[in-house]
Design brief:
- It contains seven helices and no strands.
- The chain has about 150 residues and is an all-alpha fold.
- It has a domain of about 100 residues.
- The radius of gyration is 17 Å and the shape is globular.
Length: about 150
């Protein structure tokens, strides 16, 4: 029971963050900025959660930050391609994005496991995931604002 309640904390924080970031991104028409900030905050939160793992309260706090920011970023992401793709292009683009995402979802557990085994340090995999999140935040900024922030 206590493990279930503890594991609900990050997702409870994520519910509020998803709603707030969605509203502010739509009002300000700054989806790329909101996505990038969310991914960087998610990377910081996830990395910090394993860095402070000795203190459970801090670890849960940073894990909550990481989950809230990451899940907010995921929900914000899908507004970007649909802002400039339409019709057949939208279907093909969303399918391509989904394919790459599914491939990453398949390969990343292997990468994390391999890194943890190779370094004998459990936090290295989380740091690698955080680096990829920051790369994604930077790549989304390469899309012109006039296309993505409509």
């Amino acid at each position: 029971m206590s493990i279930g309640l503890l594991s609900a904390i990050p997702y409870s924080a994520a519910i509020a963050a998803i709603v707030i970031t969605g509203i502010t991104a739509d009002r300000t028409r700054a989806r790329r900025l909101h996505f990038s900030v969310a991914m960087v905050l998610g990377a910081i939160g996830l990395s910090a959660s394993v860095f402070v793992r000795i203190n459970p309260i801090l670890a849960v706090f940073f894990l909550s930050l990481g989950a809230a920011a990451t899940l907010s970023g995921v929900s914000l992401f899908w507004g970007i391609p649909t802002a400039f793709l339409a019709g057949v292009s939208a279907a093909a683009g969303i399918a391509a994005i989904n394919s790459v995402g599914n491939l990453a979802g398949f390969l990343s557990p292997y990468m994390v496991g391999w890194l943890n085994d190779a370094t004998h340090r459990n936090e290295v995999g989380m740091y690698a995931v955080s680096v990829f999140m920051i790369i994604g935040a930077l790549l989304i900024r390469a899309i012109p604002g006039r296309l993505a922030d409509r």
